[in-house]
Amino acid sequence: MFFHQCSGLRLRSYAAVGLVLFSIVSKEAFAQNSDKPLSLHHAISKTLAQNLQLHQFDIKKDVLLGRRETSELTSALNISIEVENFAGSGELSGVTSAETTLALSSVIELGGKRRARLSVANAQLQTFDYQRQAFTLDVLGDLTSTFIQALEVQALSELALEARNLAQSTLKIVKNRSSQGAAPEYEVKRAKSSLSHSQLQVDALEQQFQRLQIKIAAYWGETLPSWSKLDGDIYTYGTSSDFIALYERAKSSPAIAQLASESRLKKAQVSLAKTQSKADIGWQLGVRRYEDNGDTAFTAGVSIPLFGGKRNRGALKSAMASENEVVYEQQTALLKLHVQLFEAYSQRQQHVAAVKVFRSDILPDLYAALASTQSAYETGRYSYQDWIAAQKELLDAKRSLIESAAAASLNQAVIEQLIAEPLN
């Protein structure tokens, strides 16, 4: 899988989910973390190296390789020994009239059965490889989404600290005006309440960030994070191709290639089923010894099953139905891919545009409005409510900016997961 690296946010290379159950993680445990920030590049590298779900594919591949090795085998040779006409009655009592036959036997496979078995085994291995790539894309896509969510919470935490500092400054100004008799006591109480509320927001976001850190660490089997901050930028997106070009790239992704490979596998299975309609010939060659006179003679025989084609009709019908089923699944998957890709593409465009407007127009105006409102409040021209409203509008806009930037990054990660390569 490929992700676009945006100032440490996404990785430009192919890179997969462990879950950890935890009850309470103390702040002291997080305080012991390293000061070195965690980048998405490092997170993906550790996931590829240590994720248990990904390494299970090595075992599954060994299973398929073993099956292919078995498919390469020719028909086995059998040796048999048969004794007749002994331990009977009369002339056949004892072993003097026994006939002993030593024989070799096997089966001559007709219809290209061995070649068809190998084709199925090779198709299974190819399908497995695409399944592995698609699964890796899914796991790393989940990791990237979780990482972006953590970056968003990290940015919101910084905004919450800014809001708390603003509340502290506001309380100080209101107390000063109240001591001068220029502001009523209830404004001081409201300012104190606002400060307490802002501190609750700081604590809540800190806890949420810790939960996401635990979730990230679980991708490579750790229970506690070894970092305290994340290294990434949710405001850098690069440029995007038009949707048609992205869709063409997505149609060659491992998820779609997996379905195409499954179609080839089903065709190979149909071919194998057809070969089963061709009856195999069993043969036997041996030597028979007559104990009563010590003579020996060669024996030979063949066996041909009757009505093999009729007996195989059900298996052939089932294999052909499975082949047709995969064709419809592939068509359905392409339609779903088209819808999912367009949703991600459209939402990315929408949120990128929103970020630009927030930065170029909305935030500069709200900064100016807050400065004017605070100055007017300190001189008694505006009310406390006007000043608080201006603060809230600015903080809400900053929060919306962070949310839009994170949404744009999340949708870009979805696009890159669907096309299995960097967006740019």
Question: Key features?
Answer:
64% helix, disordered N terminus, four-stranded antiparallel beta sheet, 424 residues, Pantoate--beta-alanine Ligase, Chain: A,domain 2, Outer membrane efflux proteins (OEP), single chain, alpha+beta, 10 helices
Question: Can you describe this structure in just a few lines?
Answer:
The chain is an alpha+beta fold and 424 residues long. The protein is built from ten helices and six strands. The protein has two domains: 27-74 and 115-277 and 322-419, Outer membrane efflux proteins (OEP), CATH 1.20.1600; 76-108 and 278-311, Pantoate--beta-alanine Ligase, Chain: A,domain 2.
Judging by the overall fold, what is the CATH architecture of the largest domain? Up-down Bundle
Under the CATH scheme, which class of the largest domain?
Mainly Alpha
Alpha plus pi helix count: 10
Largest sheet properties: 4 strands, antiparallel
What coarse outline follows from CA principal-axis ratios? elongated
Widest sheet: strand order?
2-3-5-6
Total beta strand runs: 6
Order of helices and strands: HEHHEEHHEHHEEHHH
- Residue runs with pLDDT of under 50 for 5 or more positions: 1-32
Mean pLDDT: 81
Portion in beta strands = 5-15%
Number of domains: 2
Description:
By secondary structure, the protein is α+β, with helices and mostly antiparallel strands. The strands form 2 sheets. Strands 2-3-5-6 form a 4-stranded antiparallel sheet, with no helix packed on it. It has a two-stranded parallel ribbon with strand order 1-4. Helix content is 64%, strand content 9%. The chain has 2 domains: 27-74 and 115-277 and 322-419, Outer membrane efflux proteins (OEP); 76-108 and 278-311, Pantoate--beta-alanine Ligase, Chain: A,domain 2. The model is unreliable at 1-32 (pLDDT under 50). It is elongated, with a radius of gyration of 37 Å. The protein has helices at residues 27-31, 40-50, 52-71, 113-179, 185-218, 243-250, 254-275, 308-311, 313-378, 384-419; strands at residues 38-39, 78-84, 99-108, 230-231, 281-290, 296-303.
